[in-house]
Design a protein that fits this description.
Layout: E1 16-19, E2 22-25, H1 34-46, H2 49-54, H3 56-74, H4 83-89, H5 92-118
Helix pairs in contact: 1-3, 3-4, 3-5
């Protein structure tokens, strides 16, 4: 009998969102965009939270980074979900919720790597 190590067991349970009729799994970060997603989240976290509410330039930068984050993540499965698509089809509240879920998926994926590495 062949010994098989099942790596599918470390993949998280699917968690899906629906945006403008598109269903997107936000349970994990596809490896093809991991580094881009990580870089965008780092840039967002480096923004001064006080300035986000008071400085229009910082607020616009945060908004643009959020749109780019969402488009980068979603376009893996749906290439038509570009920055322009998000600008036309989604509200700010949808972008914020989606970006938060993407950030949670990245955090969870790093935890999964650490946990598997300990085994």
């Amino acid at each position: 009998m062949e010994d098989i190590i099942d790596l599918d067991i470390i993949r998280p349970k699917p968690r899906k969102v629906k945006l403008a009729g598109k269903v997107i799994d936000v349970s994990f970060i596809p490896c093809g965009v991991t580094f881009e997603i990580d870089a965008l989240i780092r840039q967002l976290s480096e923004l001064d939270s006080k300035k986000l509410n008071t400085d229009p330039v910082t607020a616009k930068k945060g908004f643009d980074l959020t749109v780019e984050l969402c488009a980068t993540f979603a376009s893996v499965k749906y290439p038509e979900l570009t920055k322009d698509w998000f600008m036309k089809e989604c509200g700010v509240d949808q972008l914020g919720a989606f970006a938060k879920m993407i950030q949670e998926a990245l955090t969870d994926s790093y935890k999964g790597v650490e946990a598997y590495g300990k085994n």
